[in-house]
Predict the 3D structure of the following.
Amino acid sequence: MFPELELDDLVQEELENEEKTEQGITYLYDFKKGDFVMKDGRLVIVEGKEGIKIWIEKLLLTEEFKFEIYKENNSENEYGTTIKRLIQGRKIPQLLLQSELKRIIEEKLVEHIEIDRVENFNTKQEMTTLIISFTVVLKDGDTFIQEVNF
């Protein structure tokens, strides 16, 4: 008479959705200048794909465990990454480095509620700059290429 519901499945799905990071409000940030963009004395709000791009770059360039403001209540899940510590001052074989960078980035980005996966991961060294690029696939099927310089 009543529909049968798999409560365990529903509860698990709800828990997984709660663990995903919601984007909230994202402000336009000029990474070259190291400052937020202002227009008419106000911070510029970005939404959609452009907001996700800024969220990604800020996340990847922020050092994990460095800033108290990003610490979550005794959680293992900290904001930021360990990428800078991994690449600075170390001689790691290229394949191992690329594999570890890919793992770190994939794990962090899929925490965002709108990101499904990361594809086409590449790294390139130009002088003292490491350029990491990849394709971000959103849950709605839309994609974009992201490039971050370290």
Summary: The chain has a mean pLDDT of 83. The CA atoms of residues 30 and 120 lie 25 Å apart.
